[in-house]
Amino acid sequence: MVKNAMNKPDTIQPATGKLGVLMPGMGAVATTFIAGVEAIKADLGKPIGSLTQMGTIRLGKRTDGTSPLIKDFVPLAALEDLVFGGWDVFEDDVYAAASHAGVLDQKTLDALKEPLSKIKPMKAVFDRNYVKRLEGSHVKQAATKWELAEMAREDIRNFKADNGCDRLVMIWCGSTEIFLTPTAVHDTIETFEQGLKDNDEGIAPSMIYAYAALMEKVPYLNGAPNLSVDMPCMLELADRQGVPVGGKDFKTGQTLMKTILAPGFKTRALGLRGWFSTNILGNRDGEILDDPDSFKTKEESKLGVIEHILQPDLNPDLYGDIYHKVRINYYPPRGDEKEGWDNIDIFGWLGYPMQIKVDFLCRDSILAAPLVLDLVLFTDLAQRSGWKGIQEWLSFYFKSPQTAPGLYPEHDIFIQSMKLKNTLRFLMGADLITHLGQEYYD
Ligand SMILES: NC(=O)c1ccc[n+]([C@@H]2O[C@H](COP(=O)([O-])OP(=O)(O)OC[C@H]3O[C@@H](n4cnc5c(N)ncnc54)[C@H](O)[C@@H]3O)[C@@H](O)[C@H]2O)c1
């Protein structure tokens, strides 16, 4: 039985003191997030794409005219109170890593050199068997995975003490690992701990970080499609330790577009015959996803979206025969500035075919950075509200949202948004908004 204990809290602990954000993986996404927060604090830019900073929430009737900023409605940690840290297989500090990632312009990074160069990654829990296209030397050495977990736990405690943090959140911004499915070792806390001691090959580095976080009562969020906390032993641990968890895989780029467009077709009862998606990108993530084992993990994460939104079993005439294909091609000249093409074959009245072409020239890490910020702030809010386990209301941010076993994930971004906002209203004791709207006509 999976529990997530999301009752209305009597009190929400205040967001006072420092909130440490720990990131396994300090590459393009993590450094764009950190440098972005520093840039916003220095008034060099605005937090565009972040619901916690720029989004509003309607309270009461449409005629009330009450739509505060979300950050003025719920008690979130302030940007000034965030402290950043993490691990990487490369020694580069955040200034050097952000310069290498090449997402933000060098002038902005140079203006922030002082705070960014102070953030240095800790040695990674890393094993090349799980990310084949990556090689780095800034890596912990130990005889067993159990010892590695103990070392990661010590890192967490030291980081908290050294930086005077009141609370921590961990968010995986590391590379996509090879495709794994849960096995017996992932069944219970006991089998997992035994697996750590036995160096079980089913235990990937991301799981070791997740275990370390939960043992230290630190919420864990998963920005990649790796299993990490999506398995029974971690949910049992999250419940025992009283910590929120969430995943998987940041919803950016092409999948964001899919979860915007597909609900539109369904809402108007238009049919879908095929959806062909291809991407070119040239950052390190693209290079790693060029490896078929890592791509398989990503592919699984991307493919489920359309089926869950369109529900072919309920609508076989419209969605019973869909051909869905996703490709990612590593193309170095593009760097982080990905291009995603979609060819969508739809059909209308009497089955007449139509086509839609989408060419999204996006910037992967620019889309992902605000999601990291929101996930961190909302999960910290959940923790201070006494909520634990899977935070399904944060599905809005994920390509492959984690749910209780047996429950299909909600992918429709508009339903996800309604759920997120109603959860905030519920948390604060405000009326939920059903959009029934009868009161305006009584
Ligand atoms: N950018 C997006 O829009 C987006 C969207 C969804 C998911 N993601 C996922 O987010 C993750 C990060 O993306 P990115 O563009 O920053 O990639 P990146 O390659 O620039 O950064 C990943 C970093 O993780 C490090 N790393 C890998 N394994 C590690 C380990 N075990 N411990 C510590 N560090 C480790 C790598 O050295 C690298 O610096 C990837 O898994 C990617 O698939 C990104």
Any ligands, ions or cofactors bound here, and which? Answer: nicotinamide-adenine-dinucleotide
Overall form = globular
The CATH architecture category of the largest domain equals 3-Layer(aba) Sandwich
Total count of strands: 11
Radius of gyration from the CA trace? 22 Å
Strand content: 15-25%
- Spatial strand sequence of the major β-sheet: 3-2-1-4-5-6-11
Number of domains: 2
Please, could you describe this protein's structure?
With 442 residues, the chain is α/β, with parallel strands linked by helices. The chain has two domains: 18-250 and 366-427, Rossmann fold, CATH 3.40.50; 253-361, Dihydrodipicolinate Reductase, domain 2, CATH 3.30.360.10. Helix content is 38%, strand content 16%. It contains 16 helices and eleven strands. It has a seven-stranded parallel β-sheet, sandwiched between helices. α1 (28-41) crosses α15 (364-384), α7 packs across α8 and α8 (189-197) packs across α10 (232-241). The protein starts with 17 loop residues before the first strand and ends in a 15-residue tail after the last helix. The mean pLDDT is 94. The protein binds nicotinamide-adenine-dinucleotide (NAD). Nicotinamide-adenine-dinucleotide (NAD) is lined by residues 24-29, 87-90, 101, 124-126, 131, 134, 136, 173-176, 205, 223-224, 249-250, 252-253, 283-285, 364-365, 367-368. Nicotinamide-adenine-dinucleotide binds at residues 24-29, 87-90, 101, 124-126, 131, 134, 136, 173-176, 205, 223-224, 249-250, 252-253, 283-285, 364-365, 367-368.
